Amino acid sequence: MESWGPIAVLRLLLLGCLLVGLASGLRNGWIQLNWSRFLEDVGLPVPEEGKGFDLNRWLIEGGNAGQSD
Length: 69
Hints:
The chain is mainly alpha-helical. It has 3 helices and no strands.
């Protein structure tokens, strides 16, 4: 089995620092996500204006969350 070497370890360290920095930035409010724009860009259904967005319900029901047929 070939060893990873110092470059691979450095890559993992930098990736970990990037993820920790991103998480702390979101938690402290340094980075803000516009969820409706993000969902629209990704191609997922966007909730109507004025209605709250329940992420748990959306995950369970999928794209039909809040719609009655």
